[in-house]
Automatic annotation (TrEMBL):
This is Large ribosomal subunit protein uL14m. SUPFAM superfamilies: Ribosomal protein L14. GO terms for biological process: translation. One of its GO terms (molecular function) is structural constituent of ribosome. It is found in: Mitochondrion. GO terms for cellular component: mitochondrion; ribonucleoprotein complex; ribosome.
Length: 174
């Protein structure tokens, strides 16, 4: 969809202007400016926060069931220091998070993050979806394959033992 266009109706001598089906003449200046602004777009994403929906990209049974049912996993907690007391920090690529999926709580690693271009670090790619790989209670991956390509910059995290297991089951990098 494109940006809404101003429409004019010529009813006699005066022209009446509409924007998105609303009469502009009856609006206050502040409301008119608000309506004409680009406020209809989503605010930029700085990372994965609480209640962010996530797509499971491994071949685990729990992940397949969640993706096919349409009830995606969502983030509950981020295992990352920092942030303010009331607000947890945002998870980015390679961070460990706690997710709720199909009534269970599981740990997961973020292998793809949808981050706005203004908040992205140089050299860190952004994906169209927020992708995770599920872990069991001991920190091993639940699936045996990662079905989507993961960023090659994650290979720097090979020193982390749990993350190196995810890199070993991944088949494609970008």
């Amino acid at each position: 969809m494109g940006e809404p266009v101003l429409q004019e109706e010529h009813g006699g001598k005066e022209s009446v202007k509409y924007f998105c089906g609303k009469l502009l003449e009856n609006m206050s200046d502040a409301f008119r400016q608000h309506e004409l602004s680009r406020h209809r777009t989503r605010p930029p994403s700085t990372g994965i926060a609480r209640r962010t929906r996530l797509l499971v990209v491994d071949n685990s049974a729990l992940g397949k069931e969640a993706n096919t049912s349409g009830k995606l996993a969502y983030c509950i907690d981020v295992y990352k220091p920092g942030g303010r007391k009331k607000h947890m920090p945002h998870a980015t690529l390679g961070d460990k998070i706690l997710v709720a999926i199909r009534g269970e709580m599981k740990q997961a690693f973020v292998v793809g993050a949808k981050i706005d271009v203004d908040y992205r670090k140089h050299g860190i790619p952004s994906t169209d979806t927020n992708n995770i790989v599920l872990l069991d209670d001991e920190g091993n991956p639940l699936g045996t394959r990662v079905l989507m390509p993961i960023p090659a910059v994650l290979q720097r995290k090979r020193a982390n033992l749990q993350f190196s297991k995810i890199l070993s089951i991944a088949t494609k990098y970008f």
